[in-house]
Design goal:
Length: about 375
């Protein structure tokens, strides 16, 4: 079977999958086939809400997907989204133990080709997980994700909340780009903060599937071999909102310099986003302009933007604290989120976030240092 662009679109919309299931009278498999003593499949164990059953065969048996029919950025992004989720399902279907070291050629080659065409790394990034992963339920209704992972409603809520934060930042980005000193960027960030709250009825997410990295990950110390692409393993960081362009753009606009880690995250942005951030970096300094103007009102407006950015980051730290504490407590009690169909083991926080004696202290010191560096960007009176 040659999977062309149309089939990928059908996978996206889940229509073919649903029809296929209806014809065959079977339901979507949600149990790990490896655990069930069957060969692993590309998407089955993911419980992907869309067309996973199109990929109910092992990637080793699956025909090599052709990317030659994909046209335009939208289709490429959609293909990247689908291939990245299938890859994640294949690699992590049994959690962090017993991870595979080789991505089969049938999956690796098309994933690599689509990634090259988009200038994105061949891994599920923020671009896939959030920016490309939404649709309207119908023209007048609310947003929904295209693909989700086990994690129930809470994970779907997390994806959409992050998307709303991106949306809330748009006015700030627009004004910031025009570099008007009386930017309402601060308001934009303040408007984004409440978006952090889980939507009504949704609890905090159980990210048992995170971190989905094969860089600096003890479970995959050498990275991943993309069969048919290279014999050498390659290492990539998984998706994180640290790869979101909005915060990088605001930081550059306000002259805030951050860590090597955050800089490295720019490699995970779509090239036009990266170019946008770099263009702001190259432009004459806004802070210098405000300072040399000697205008007290400009200084106040500038500082208000810095405060809003620091407040936003403080709020984020509060949410991350809640998540780590709640997830650790749930894991201890062996409780699952009611919306999570994957069972009690699913509430186990990922090892990188786990309070393994450190209480996740490395994460908090990182996030706090980013917040404190932001505060240091203030113009003193
Ligand atoms: C329960 C929800 C969340 C958790 C547990 C969480 C966790 C984390 C963690 C652990 C990091 C450290 C970097 C990394 O490991 O990649 C991080 C960074 C970051 N997160 Fe979140 N996050 C959450 C929600 C959000 C949302 C909704 C946004 C909105 C865009 C966001 C934006 C960021 C940004 C921009 C960074 C980079 C650090 C910075 O610029 O301050 N996070 N997050």
């Amino acid at each position: 079977m040659l999977v062309n662009q149309l089939q990928i679109l059908q996978v996206w919309e889940g229509r073919e999958a649903c029809r296929g299931r209806a014809r065959a009278g079977r339901s979507t498999r949600r149990v790990s086939p490896r655990l069930a003593g069957q060969p692993p499949t590309a998407g089955g164990a993911l419980g992907i809400a869309c067309g996973a059953c199109c990929f109910q065969r092992s990637p080793w048996q699956m025909p090599q997907l052709s990317t030659q029919h994909l046209r335009g950025r939208e289709e490429l992004h959609l293909a990247h989204l689908v291939l990245s989720f299938i890859t994640m399902g294949y690699l992590w279907q049994e959690g962090e133990e017993g991870t595979v070291k080789v991505l089969p050629q049938n999956l690796a080659v098309p994933f690599w080709e689509v990634s090259q065409a988009l200038g994105l790394p061949p891994i599920l990034s923020h671009t896939d997980f959030v920016l490309a992963n939404w649709r309207r339920k119908n023209p007048n209704r609310n947003l929904d994700t295209i693909i989700s992972l086990p994690g129930g409603e809470s994970l779907r809520g997390f994806i959409l909340v992050t998307l709303l934060v991106e949306k809330a930042a748009v006015p700030g980005i627009k004004v910031g780009y025009r570099r008007a000193p009386r930017t309402p960027m601060g308001w934009s960030l303040l408007a984004a903060s409440p978006c952090y709250q889980p939507p009504r009825g949704h609890s905090l997410p159980d990210f048992h599937v995170f971190p989905l990295s094969w860089k600096d990950n003890p479970a995959m110390p050498d990275g991943l071999i993309y069969e048919g692409v290279s014999d050498e393993p390659m290492a990539y960081s998984g998706g994180s909102a640290a790869q979101s362009t909005i915060l990088h753009a605001f930081d550059e606009l306000l002259g805030i310099r951050h860590t090597a880690f955050l800089h490295r995250m720019r490699d995970y942005m779509p090239p036009p986003h990266r170019a946008f951030v770099e263009e702001i970096h190259r432009a004459p300094s806004l802070k210098q302009h405000v300072l040399s103007s000697g205008d007290a009102r400009l200084c106040t407006a500038f500082n208000r933007c810095i405060s809003a950015l620091a407040e936003f980051r403080s709020y984020h730290i509060t949410i991350v604290t809640k998540y780590i504490t709640v997830a650790a407590a749930k894991a201890k009690a062996g409780q699952a989120d009611p919306g999570d169909r994957a069972g009690p083991s699913a509430v186990k926080p990922p090892s990188a976030l786990e309070a393994k004696g450190t209480g996740g202290s490395h994460i908090f010191s990182f996030l706090k240092s980013v917040r404190d560096t932001t505060r240091e960007g203030m113009i003193s009176a």
